[in-house]
């Protein structure tokens, strides 16, 4: 029979109707009250058993974690803490759960570190229930935003043969016997015998293919997994992460910044409106966590005011050169968090610099533009000064870089010259260069790391806790 979700029952104004509910037992007390959770909400549904109606054998099997099906009437609850409860008429145990072995038996809230060790079961906790429902809603809001603006969702390939962008960070894809690969005349691996007849790898970004789409549909976005074999064991990097990459024809850098800012505000606005309950749970969790920390490490705003602040304030916009001046002129603050070294013009900003600008100096999201061309990718549009490119990075409090984007160089000759300077394989990239040969136009786009967005919105501190199945160096559990 059709089951009704717990969330729906708890929201329904009506009472005195029959339902079937199915879920997992969170707790069972006094041989009478089951707290049932089915993943639709963190709020449990109270199931009340008629005393004496249950056999001792069934009573013994009503343990935390067991899967059950209940048929009964939704009635007003006399107990405090819930408006309604279900008076069980029929109860069936669908799957037993051995209380001796079940790792989520713990009375106290298990630590995030412990839950990372049992990542295959952590979805059943309130914390991860809330995180992954919010993640789902954000993904939905991403598609909603672009769909409403007429963007085409273009699926770019996971396996690619282009290696222009990911130098040194790519996972190779091969069907060759890696212990005994065929070798060419000079002793290097001969990829002619490989599956695709050439070396291939997992994509680090869908942008280059996305540009082909933008040159036909005008506005496209891709939203899929990307892979980087960077050996960065940080709380902000994954080896497999999801990236949202819109690419727009007839856009300049300013249009690009405007879209990125509107996009971030729109998806945050969506969850504030639609995921209040889960956000409030996460906010409270964070507040409790904060109480354990020394004063200066506590968050200044609660989670929801922090999200509302982003929604209601314009992002600060300045150039890389202006940012370097600020960093040079700021007295180094020698707390552990901001122990930055003041850099000279030309260096890439480290995350301490980014966080200083966002968290100490401007105290709001920042868009930095016009970076030195030497530290940015080959496809970015070159400025008249010959030194900088029309790049933008968006920096967020507590996160650092959340978006990297640019206006693209649409001039064929300038692009090829830049590729040659950077020793990129111009011949192998002729498919890409066709975008500059046949009806080139100004265009721009950006990449937003989806997990960094989820980190910000959930207030979590480690990127491993906002992706269902984290992939990091020396760890691939499933
Ligand atoms: P970072 O400086 O943090 O290493 P990046 O400049 O190398 O990032 P880009 O190539 O600009 O990253 O990618 C676009 C966006 O993808 C970044 O702004 C970030 O949000 C996200 N991102 C990049 N690398 C990772 C990663 N390893 N794990 C999760 N998200 C990432
Ligand atoms: Mg990086
Ligand atoms: Mg970066
Ligand atoms: Mg970047």
UniProtKB/TrEMBL annotation:
Primary site of residence: cytoplasm
One Pfam family matching this protein: tRNA-synt_2
Recorded catalytic activity of this chain's protein: tRNA(Asn) + L-asparagine + ATP = L-asparaginyl-tRNA(Asn) + AMP + diphosphate + H(+)
Gene Ontology biological process terms, A to Z: asparaginyl-tRNA aminoacylation
GO molecular function: asparagine-tRNA ligase activity; ATP binding; nucleic acid binding
EC number assigned by the record: 6.1.1.22
Segments forming domain Aminoacyl-transfer RNA synthetases class-II family profile: 132-468
Cellular compartment(s): Cytoplasm
Listed InterPro entries: Aa-tRNA-synt_II (IPR004364), aa-tRNA-synth_II (IPR006195), aa-tRNA-synth_II/BPL/LPL (IPR045864), Asn-tRNA-ligase (IPR004522), Asp/Asn-tRNA-synth_IIb (IPR002312), NA-bd_OB-fold (IPR012340), NA-bd_OB_tRNA (IPR004365)
Cellular-component GO terms for this entry: cytoplasm
Keyword set, alphabetical order: Aminoacyl-tRNA synthetase, ATP-binding, Cytoplasm, Ligase, Nucleotide-binding, Protein biosynthesis
CDD domains: AsxRS_core, EcAsnRS_like_N
Claim: Membrane is one of the keywords in the record: no
Enzyme kind, highest EC tier: ligase
Signal peptide: none
ATP-binding recorded as keyword: yes
Family under the similarity heading: Belongs to the class-II aminoacyl-tRNA synthetase family.
NCBIfam families from the UniProt entry: asnS (TIGR00457), PRK03932.1 (NF003037)
PANTHER family in the cross-refs: ASPARAGINE--TRNA LIGASE, MITOCHONDRIAL-RELATED (PTHR22594:SF34), ASPARTYL/LYSYL-TRNA SYNTHETASE (PTHR22594)
Subunit text: Homodimer.
Protein name listed in UniProt: Asparagine--tRNA ligase
